[in-house]
What does this fold into?
Amino acid sequence: MRCGNGIEARQVDELFINIDPIQAGGRLTADAMKAVIAYGDGYSVCDNCRKPNRLDYISKPPIAEFHKDVAGWLNMDAVRTVPGARRGFQAVAQTYVKKGEPVLLTSLSHYTEFLAVEEAGGVAREIPANEHKLVTPDAAAAKIEEVKREFGRAPVLAFIDHIDYQYGNMHDIAAIAKVTRQYDVPIVYNGAYTVGILPVDGKALGVDFVVGSGHKSMAAPAPSGILAATAERAAEVFRTTSIIGDVTKRKFGIKEPEMMGCTLMGATLIGMMASFPHVKERVKHFDRELANHRVVTEALESVAGTRILSEFPRKHTMTRVDTTASFDTIAETHKKRGYYFSSALEEKGITGVIPGATKVWKFNTYGMTGKQAAHLAAAFVDIARENGIAVNE
Ligand SMILES: *Cc1c(COP(=O)(O)O)cnc(C)c1O
It folds into this structure.
């Protein structure tokens, strides 16, 4: 099948077990696929937009209800949809950060948090992760004190990733939020790898904002995501416009500048909404995902020389592994060089490992069946054996 203009239909998740670290949680549900077809047209959610004209007020399809449901589900007070987690960070940074002001990030923060700070003119100050690649509340407090000495004031905002993108480690954001609260620093919970994967309770965590990624973790089309806020912070980040045209004297009512009025206007939003009942259900069963993941990490660890670089026991299904002393030793002499590894995986129906990567790489087992996890585990062991790498029974 072709889509025209030289575009071939993509057949990746149809034909392979896909272990790409960033793709597993965004794979569409069948309902989201239907939504993409039904709401692909431009501004297709706007058919029944009535006064007050704003996306989150539309009741047919039930967009207003979705906003309320997501807020309740995250135990936050207000929600807006955004074109990706990054646009959520941007809205918050634009609200709180002025030129030259310090913002708290971590040594494991995602680049999109840095860019959001940069765009607002802020200065990045990172809490260093400890030797276990964990960001601790003590380190957060120490960094805030350091910032106060340097800038004469506390950071104006903090971004903390619950699960970081490098190791897939879980950081104690509730404890970190207690510290930031003592200094009156608003804190953003970056749930790019958790909202839609694990249960998230914003109030229990004590955070001001929860950001989620639709296309990373909510089985939604890209670009999509959510920004949730407490009532106090919602009044700030979701403030309404006050600009007036000098000639026409026009005003723009309840439009929100940080949202540029309206955000997701078609397949992205309706896709996220269509997946939502499935997503709400699946977060209750993350233990099954971890059980599958364990089968795979145990197989990898049985390959002599392989080291899992992420924390143990695993709390997430996205994991960083070092195979420099195992699979990489074959790359030097193999006729396919480093490509032998991804190509052997592909032959076994597995995709998503960067072609040529044999040293340090990441994978994600989210959404697999037990059978698929067993197949993946066996594939790693078989590729090791086929290449003469020792396997510990
Ligand atoms: C993927 C990712 C993001 C970016 O998410 P988008 O929805 O693509 O903007 C931000 N933070 C972390 C930790 C991520 O892993």
User: Anything to note?
Assistant: Residues 162 and 171 are 5 Å apart (CA to CA).
